[in-house]
Amino acid sequence: MDKVTDKQKREDSLNGVGCSRKRKEDARFIQGKGNYTDDIKMPGMLFADMVRSPYAHARIISINKEKALALLQQQ
Amino acid sequence: MIPSGFEYHKATSIADAIAKLRDNEDAKLLAGGHSLLPMMKLRFAETPYLVDINGIEELKGIRIDGDTITIGAMTTESELINSDILQQHCPLLIDAAKLVADPQVRNKGTIGGDVAHGDPGNDHPAVMLALDAQLVIHGPDGERTIPANGFFLGTYWTTLEEHEILVAIKIPALKLGTGHGYSKLKRKTGDYAVAGSPVVVEMDGDIVRDIRIGLTNVAPMAIRAEAAEDLIRGKQVDQALLKAVEKAVIAVCDPAVDLRGDEEYKSHMAAIMARRSIIQAIENAKG
Amino acid sequence: MAKQAVSFTLNGKAVDVLVEPRELLIHTLRENLNHTGAHIGCETSHCGVCTVDVDGQSVKSCTLLTVQAAGSDVKSVEGLASADGLHVIQQAFVDEHGLQCGFCTPGMLMRAYRFLQENPDPSDEEIRWGMSGNLCRCTGYQNIIEAVKTAAKNLQQA
After folding, report:
1. B263, B252 in Cβ contact below 8 A?
2. Which of A23, A24, A26 to mutate to test the interface with C (most CBs of C within 10 A)?
3. In a 10 Å sphere around its CB, with 0-12 CB exposed, 13-18 middle and 19+ buried, how is residue C73 labelled?
4. Domains, chain C, ordered by start
5. Alpha-carbon torsion B124, B126, B130, B135, what sign?
6. Whose CB has fewer CB within 10 Å in chain A, the N or C terminal residue?
């Protein structure tokens, strides 16, 4: 019993330093409402994927968009 | 990330499934889907027509008739683990199933898929060899039952003919004086084997009357270490004999070199797994 | 390929969706049905952050076609809490600090939910084996084990 009271007294006098706190963010994580980046949905939102160069050192001669734009036509 | 497109049909019977395989070029079967779907998601596999065999009742169930256990090909790893029949009559299969992947995968993955897919990393083929199992196959030309020994030809290559379906597996029930062992080395829980070895022995007192040693993932397909078996058959096992057995196991290994290890390492580990399983099998033959 | 109508129950409510056969359940849940609790964390069916409960079994929803869930009873993390508050398991994870970034947590919760029905009084070893299909990069797993133990105890008292 004494241990608890001492601990409590100590914590009170430190004004919060060193005491245990429950996290605030758990409430939404634990219910699947974490709102991570991929969870975000906005009307009219677009998606981007990066096309990286397969060459470490090269000169860009042309950028050919036809195949990529054709994907937009498919559904 | 997602599979390419396909038509989907949920088969209503084995005959229906075979007909769909026959009538649709490059059609594939969907069993548990935990080998096929990951491959399709990465676009390593494609099919224009997917035949889902999850609804076919004749493919499910475990039963025992006299000395033979019959396991439906669509029996999941979880169902194997929870089977009272297997607990009593073929615990080796449960030991192997428990070390396949993880609980979620085991709820879906089937013994039929694991055997028929042909991935050298799959755990059940070597167990089929150690158990001297029989495979029941249905196809457009009828049914056939063949020994598992000889079914596995190479990577993703079995003796399944076009449009055939593995329907059931038949295993002899555990006899008195028989023991089993199972050892699987893996980098982490749920991984494929670095090397695995199921062993079945039949004892005559301290003499090993018969032995079958299966090896997983140290060759293009599951194999038996027959030369090692010949060394043991008819003898009492001691340290000197086990050393010779290890050498014989290493000699028969032909593992792929990958992040799990190089040839020397994997072969050596196969020998250790076989050794452990042999000792375990002899131990529990007495029990 | 042509879309087909699929009906199933999600957290007790009937849902009807129109999907291509190749659509995975995880995408149907997250995109069509706006249940973003289940997450996508790998491309190899290893991580388990997509774990949901289908017909009484823990399943990785990234490795299930939506057409396979036709007629099924699906539960996701959104269905754990009730009007009376958090589920015992959810509270246990909060109390035992069984989460940090929270990304793996829905999968952990749905797996723990089913695992504790399969094994209501598990040892630490059994918890580790039973939860081995769910990976976590933050916690080092120890507090997750504690959370499942606490949940087991509290469920038995309930």
Report:
1. no
2. A26
3. middle
4. 4-77 (3.10.20.30), 88-157 (1.10.150.120)
5. positive
6. C
* Neighbors of chain A with 3 or more C-beta pairs under 8 Å: C
Full residue range of the structural domain in which residue B12 is found = 7-52
User: Do B117 and B202 reside in the same domain of the chain?
Assistant: no
Backbone angles phi, psi at C54, to 5 degrees: -125, 120
pLDDT reported for residue A5: 76
Contact call for B and A: 3+ CB–CB distances under 8 Å? no
| Cα of C51 to nearest chain B Cα, Å | 8
Which residues of A touch chain C, with CB atoms under 8 Å apart?
22-23, 25-26, 28-36, 38-39, 41
CA distance A74 to chain C (A): 12
Q: Strands of B142-147's sheet, edge to edge?
A: B62-65, B68-72, B165-172, B134-139, B142-147
> What's the pLDDT score for residue A10?
75
Q: What confidence tier does A49 reach under pLDDT thresholds 50, 70, 90?
A: confident
Query: In this predicted model, what pLDDT tens digit does every residue of B121-147 receive, in sequence order?
Result: 999 999 999 999 999 999 999 999 999
Which DSSP state fits B255? P
Q: Do C39 and A38 touch (CB under 8 A)?
A: yes
Which tokens hold the place of B211? 């032995």
